[in-house]
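User: tokens in, sequence out, please.
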């Protein structure tokens, strides 16, 4: 019995090896689209402080030199449910690839079928003894193999590998987006805290001024219109406070959600601009590196690779299909299996199937796959163009932010000097209180403008790291050609 199984398996293996050596893969072989020589981000790359070709660190948020921020990002990456879902999806995609690779090998199954049977006496017994009641136990090992003659399975594996890579970069995109959102929320926390503090200081000053006006009005030294104007200015400043407090509370809830908490478990870290430091130099990747590193571009390319492989799968379906089967076993007239030459049986068979007519279904499936590939190619090109546009926009914003912050600081310094001069002139009786109020209002607006300009600059630094891909490739170098670890 064992000799029969061995012989059948050996014959099957020889036939499978012969067929596999002559197999080929139909459909297009994937080639990465070439990058145009003129591709780039434009003139924004030559501004001071940018180091062209410099690598992006994996933990890029550390450039702000804030320990609380580093801890908060680490907590978010560890506990955020979006990351956990992306990691699970990547594991699922990996298992799908391994499952599809199993089709490269023969499938082997073993069966044991005991039965008790009785034939009607009027019928001829299948047994040599002529008995109409008997026990039969069949033991069998079967081997089935479908050679990948025209590469259908190879292309299917390639398609699933591309989907695995897509999920890999979906995870990277989720990590980058999460880290960016945490840093942006921390910057907003710092900005809103200072805006609320400045607004409260303005309200306190204006209340003191209003009390002074009320005393002067009672003494007949101030007009009713002056008093009404001060009351209006105070009401306007007080009206600005609730929206700021609302934004602050909403931002606090956002920070809690980003690190995997509910609003009942708020983040206790307090962020201030004096605890955040802008780097003197910022990295700027080369055009080819932007394409190679941005997760959205890599996702689009993975979709393009999957679509290319599906063309091969559809094309292979129109070619012949070979199925090889072998079986060996034994039959015993008892519940106990018996293995000897008298009880043994075996079989070896092969079937070749060629689609002849299917109403054009397979042809149209192939054409549909080619159209899907063309669509994926167009989407890839659009993603690349969008990546360069996004990077160029961020670079222009950074250049504008620096100018805007300098202008806001210059304006605030000028308004502060103007207020000081107005206050001295008012003390000397050379200027009305209304002029002083106007100078105070201008100086207060200048403070808020500086805060907003500073927040915009910090946020656009975050946007630059996001536009350059976030440095995931720097996280775990590994051996040459190895895929980087994605924390899954």
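Assistant: Sequence out:
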């Amino acid at each position: 019995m064992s000799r029969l199984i061995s012989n059948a398996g050996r014959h099957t293996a020889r036939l499978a090896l012969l067929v596999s050596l002559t197999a080929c893969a139909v459909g297009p072989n994937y080639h990465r689209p070439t990058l145009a020589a003129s591709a780039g981000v434009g003139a924004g790359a030559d501004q001071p402080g940018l180091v062209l070709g410099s690598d992006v660190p994996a933990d890029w948020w550390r450039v702000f030199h804030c320990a609380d921020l580093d801890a908060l990002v680490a907590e978010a990456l560890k506990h955020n449910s979006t990351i956990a879902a992306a990691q699970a999806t990547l594991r699922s995609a990996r298992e799908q690839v391994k499952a599809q690779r199993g089709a490269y090998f023969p499938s082997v199954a073993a069966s044991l079928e005991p039965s008790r049977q009785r034939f009607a006496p009027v019928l001829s017994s299948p047994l040599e003894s002529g008995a109409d009641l008997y026990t039969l136990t069949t033991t069998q090992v079967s081997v089935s193999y479908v050679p990948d003659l025209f590469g259908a399975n190879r292309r299917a594996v390639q398609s699933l590998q591309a989907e695995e890579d897509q999920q890999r970069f979906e995870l990277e995109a989720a990590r980058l987006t999460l880290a960016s959102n945490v840093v942006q929320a921390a910057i907003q926390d710092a900005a809103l805290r200072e805006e609320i503090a400045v607004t409260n200081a303005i309200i306190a000053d204006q209340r003191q001024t209003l009390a002074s006006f009320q005393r002067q009005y009672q003494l007949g030294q101030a007009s009713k219109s002056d008093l009404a104007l001060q009351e209006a200015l105070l009401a306007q400043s007080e009206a600005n406070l609730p929206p700021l407090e609302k934004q602050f509370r909403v931002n606090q809830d956002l920070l809690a959600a980003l690190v995997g908490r509910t609003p009942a478990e708020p983040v206790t870290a307090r962020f201030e601009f004096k605890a955040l430091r802008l780097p003197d130099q910022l990295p700027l990747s080369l055009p080819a590196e932007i394409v190679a590193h941005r997760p959205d571009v890599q996702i689009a390319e993975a979709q393009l690779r999957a679509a290319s492989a599906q063309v091969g799968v559809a094309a292979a379906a129109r070619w012949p299909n070979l199925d090889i089967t072998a079986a060996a076993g034994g039959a015993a007239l008892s519940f106990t299996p018996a293995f000897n030459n008298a009880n043994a049986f075996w079989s070896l068979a092969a079937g070749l199937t060629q689609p002849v007519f299917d109403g054009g279904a397979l042809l149209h499936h192939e054409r549909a796959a080619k159209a899907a590939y063309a669509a994926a190619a167009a989407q890839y090109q659009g993603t690349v163009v969008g990546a360069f546009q996004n990077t160029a926009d961020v670079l222009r914003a950074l250049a504008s932010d620096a100018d805007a912050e300098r202008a806001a600081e210059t304006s605030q310094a000028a308004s502060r000097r103007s207020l000081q001069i107005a206050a001295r002139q008012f003390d000397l009786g050379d200027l009305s209180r209304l002029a002083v109020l106007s100078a105070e209002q201008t100086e207060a607006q200048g403070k808020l403008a500086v805060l907003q300009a500073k927040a915009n600059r910090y946020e656009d630094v975050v946007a630059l790291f996001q536009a350059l891909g976030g440095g995931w490739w720097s996280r775990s170098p590994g051996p040459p050609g190895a895929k980087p670890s994605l924390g899954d």
